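Justification of computing resources. Each target in the renewal requires a structure prediction run like the one illustrated here; the chain below, 167 residues long, is used simply to show the kind of job we budget for.
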Amino acid sequence: MLTNMKIAQKGFTLVEVLIAMTILSVGILGIAGLAGTAVKTSGHSQSMTQANNLAQKRLEALLSVDYMNLEVTDTTAAITELRRNCSQTDATAGRPVYSCAPVTASETIGNRPYAWSYTVTLIDVNADGVATQKKDGLKRVDVTVSWTDTLWKTTKSVTVTTMRSRG
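Resulting structure tokens:
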């Protein structure tokens, strides 16, 4: 009679329950680790999007600057964000480069500060070895926005580029 009773009782032993709990715990810990990675990636994507939007905004503002004055220091411009200090950083005749630092070179979006600057490179369109504003009439403008990634403690940056013609 005792044997029939053991066979009739169905259920889990304590060892089976402990093994199942261990497997479940390992799975939950793995998913929790992925959630942390997702949060980090989401924060980085948000910063990258904000920097890209700011770079595009500044590039569009630079469209209002006269072609001949893009690389010229101007600390009295009517639009405050366009006040800048510029200097020639590469004097190569065929490709001179000017770096410009805005007077108000930072902007805070959310809780994160972003810094921006831009460079102007004259392009030698007619391939005579000398790039000039008047003869060649083409400039490359690179707007760079940088910020410090709070999670990784490193400086990140985004650069948006456009070409401006004299016409």
